[in-house]
Automatic annotation (TrEMBL):
It comes from the Bacteria. Gene3D superfamilies: HAD superfamily/HAD-like. This is Uncharacterized protein. One of its GO terms (cellular component) is cytoplasm. One of its GO terms (molecular function) is phosphatase activity.
């Protein structure tokens, strides 16, 4: 019998695309769970709360438990949840601010924040909000970025992403943010901290379609890496500078058999 493994599964491009669930994805999740493995589902989304994402995954037909879903918002909560002195100013939309408020101590700009967390804030971004964050950083608060994307595409146009705002605050305050989303190894390590028992890196697998994020951070964290030939894979085949996974499989359908064959 295969020893219990920890499996970190990327979502978009690995289990589903914009066209829907990839063939065999539902059965793979069921098989991994039946085999007794610990699962975490990884996404870099910083614009929706965990409950909304969970509902969407269930609607797709994926058997995902809400406590298995790991986002940058959850990562920030895990990172700060163990610090009883943390007082967090959130630059984020209503959904993620509410989720963080339910998990950690969130304060206003004039309540001596010890940390500034930056996520998707496009709906109500103002100069005053940025200036309040800058003032907190100048007073010694730590800067945490939920992710550091430069821009995102929507309706055929490019739009500023969270990373652009983080870069402005880094420049103004002369500091470097801690990134708790992909491709930071902190994201992986915090995901492993969220599991019921300490994970053995030799028995921990990270599975994704993107060599520049999923595979890169898995290698840096010392995990076993598997790249699927779906999603972004075909866009990266000519880029020889990208890291190479321990195993490359046609799709996530091959994962249970691979783990049974190679698990330690």
């Amino acid at each position: 019998m295969t020893a219990r493994q920890t499996v970190l599964l990327d979502l978009e491009g690995t289990l589903y695309t914009r066209e829907g669930l990839l063939e065999g994805a539902r059965a793979v999740v069921q098989k991994l769970r039946a085999d007794g493995h610990t699962l975490r589902f990884l996404t870099n989304t910083d614009s929706k709360d965990t409950a909304e994402l969970h509902t969407a995954l269930l609607a797709l037909g994926l058997d995902v438990r809400i406590d298995e879903l790991f986002t940058p918002v959850v990562a920030a909560a895990v990172a700060l949840g163990g610090d009883p002195t943390a007082r967090v100013l959130v630059l984020g939309n209503e959904a993620i601010t509410t989720e963080l408020t339910n998990r950690i101590k969130v304060v206003g700009p004039h309540e001596n924040p010890t940390h500034v967390v930056v996520g998707d804030v496009r709906a109500h971004l103002t100069y005053t909000l940025l200036d309040d964050a800058f003032a907190a950083l100048r007073r010694g608060a730590h800067l945490i970025a939920l992710q550091k994307g430069q821009y995102f595409l929507s309706d055929g146009s490019a739009h500023l992403d969270t990373g652009a705002l983080v870069a402005a605050l880094e420049y103004a305050a002369s500091l470097t943010a801690q990134v708790v989303g992909k491709p930071s190894t902190d994201f992986v390590n915090l995901a492993l901290r969220s599991t019921p028992a300490p994970a053995n890196p030799r028995r921990t697998w990270i599975v994704g379609d993107d060599a520049s994020t999923d595979i890169a951070m898995g290698i840096k964290a010392g995990l076993r890496t598997v790249q699927v030939q779906t999603g972004k894979y075909t866009l990266q085949t000519t880029d020889t500078s990208l890291p190479v996974a321990d195993d490359v499989v046609e799709s996530v359908k091959a994962l249970p058999a691979l783990i049974r064959k190679k698990a330690l």
